[in-house]
Amino acid sequence: MIRIPSLVPSALLGSLLVLTAVVPAQAQTSPGRGVWGFEVEAGTDNRSKAASKSCNDAYVSAYAAWESDDGRIYVSPGFQTIQAGGSNIETDWIVGYRPEAFGYAFDLNLAYKRRLDVDPGYDADGLELSAEVSRAVGPAQAALLVQYAPDAPGLTRSYVWVEAELGWTFSPRLDGSAAIGRREQDGGPDYTGWNAGVTYALTDALALDLRYYDTDAAALDEQYEDAVVARLAYAF
């Protein structure tokens, strides 16, 4: 059965508004020292690789990002709320490189993930390597993403996720996209997941995303069930 989200809970939205009110709405720049940016987010379900990380409940996240003056090298620490192994918080530490060649954009990164306050015996941390290639032609965009985790948090020992995405820019404020991916896991079920939705820029810094997710593994666990997810993100 499709899960239709209620509005983002007022406590979560309140936290988002407080965070955005106490910091300047401009990226911090220092010539020759790179650029700092920040993003806070709240949504009705924390979806990753089409599956829920929050047991189909609402979540919040916050990330900082530093990138070099040419935009190629970046570092991004942050956190997101989850529900797994007794933990409600996952921290992420990401370092990456974004070159361009022959009209294609590449994004190569390594992420260290750690879940806080886990149950005894639960594997709290893991590594994930990602490689993405994308290209835009007029209003159309396409991307291919490959992710490999040699050591994943929780019961899953390792996995590979491969995803293809197509997008279209309808207007300067409205974008649509759809993606399909396949996850092969050691210590977890293999499944195919997909999503489709639209993102609307309410302002230059505030965006609303409405997206439908589903997998072919809904019978295995509620985290794989389909859902309509609303997400509000503020970047500064």
TrEMBL record:
Residues 1-27 form the signal peptide. Keywords: Signal. SUPFAM superfamilies: Porins. The keyword Aminoacyl-tRNA synthetase does not apply. The keyword Signal applies. This is Porin. It comes from Brevundimonas mediterranea.
